[in-house]
Write a structure and sequence with these properties.
This protein is mainly beta. It has helices spanning about 120-130, 315-320, and strands at about 45-50, 55-60, 70-75, 85-95, 100-105, 110-115, 135-140, 165-175, 185, 195, 205, 220-225, 235-245, 250, 260, 280-285, 305-315. The relative contact order is 0.19.
């Protein structure tokens, strides 16, 4: 999928610490074969204090296990995570017997990333597919299931370090996630724009030759859902985007839903217009033309038309447990 320079979607909300695979040259195993604790090894794991949604504390005793291990500390009752889903989770990562190198709890913003498809360290792919939403998972990753022999210098991880993670699985969203199928039809598209397809399925966006992009950003709610109103933070969404001349720019429907920043301080963007829109809605966004900017490398744009299905607001584990 082509990324949209004018629509700053966060494909991976996790920090650099999670965004990558080990450098051991191994392919990511079939995650479906390792969904149980027995399938990923046995042995002593560290103890964890704190409830689901709370920042955990990990206590270590003894040497690190040599094999990948996992334990479900608290099993949820939500749907199982499927390979290829966009996983939404809170997490804390710590070197065995060492320092915490990353956690989402202090940031107050969940991580969201494709799971089971090689977009994160292989230990995550192997342990989190098949886990139910609402679960707290403890995992121990030997180097070959984390960052391999090269480690991760930026995170202070050596090539010999075993990594321990506590992950609170908030939920996951598959390729077919979209707006509510029964979302109430509301406003028609502006003149020169045609949107076909029912809410909840990939739309087709057509721009007439007579269409002129507006001078200011404009928002049209095509179909209104019944979910909670979008607030600042992140939303899980799908979109199709074309430029003002009708040329395709990208579509999340070809891969997975995305975590989209909305009204985040210091990150202004066209998706800020989604604030107040009920989750489950289908929205059309018009982005005005932009001039080229040599200092940032931004190319000139004739304007953008995007149809966004607002799937859900991304909640932290703590908020989802309320």
């Amino acid at each position: 999928m082509r990324r949209l320079a004018v629509l700053p979607v966060l494909a991976l909300s996790a920090s650099l610490v999670l965004a990558g695979c080990g450098d051991d040259g191994e392919e990511t195993p079939d995650a479906s074969s390792t969904s149980s604790a027995a399938a990923v090894g046995s042995g002593e794991l560290p103890s964890v204090s704190g409830a689901y949604g709370e920042k955990p504390t990990i206590s270590f005793e003894g040497d690190a296990p040599k094999a990948l291990q996992k334990e479900i500390l608290d099993e949820g009752d939500g749907p199982e995570v499927q390979s290829g889903d966009l996983l939404v989770a809170d997490y804390l990562g710590q070197v065995w017997g060492g320092e915490v190198f990353d956690n989402s709890y202090d940031r107050g913003q969940v991580a969201a990333f494709p799971i089971g498809v090689g977009q994160v360290v292989s230990g995550w792919d192997e342990t989190l597919v098949g886990v139910k939403a609402g679960s707290r998972v403890l995992m121990s990753l030997p180097p070959d299931k984390g960052y391999g022999a090269n480690g991760n210098e930026q995170a202070g991880i050596k090539g010999t370090d075993t990594l321990v993670f506590v992950v609170d699985v908030v939920g996951s969203y598959g390729k077919s996630s979209g707006a509510q199928a029964d979302a109430a039809q509301k406003d028609a598209p502006p003149a020169g724009i045609t949107v076909s397809g029912a809410p909840g399925a990939a739309p087709k966006v057509t721009v007439a030759k007579t269409y002129k992009a507006p001078a200011k950003a404009a928002t049209t709610v095509l179909a209104e859902g019944t979910g909670p109103a979008v607030a600042s933070g992140q939303v899980i969404g799908q979109y199709v985007a074309v430029d003002a001349k009708g040329s395709a720019l990208g579509s999340t429907w070809e891969s997975t839903p995305q975590a989209i920043p909305v009204a985040v301080e210091g990150q202004p963007g066209p998706f800020d217009a989604l604030v107040g829109v009920p989750a489950g809605s289908r929205v059309l966004l018009q982005v005005p033309p932009t001039a080229a900017n040599q200092s940032t490398g931004q190319q000139a744009s004739p304007g953008v038309v995007a149809v966004v299905d607002v799937v859900a607001q991304a909640q932290t584990a703590k908020d989802s447990a309320k």
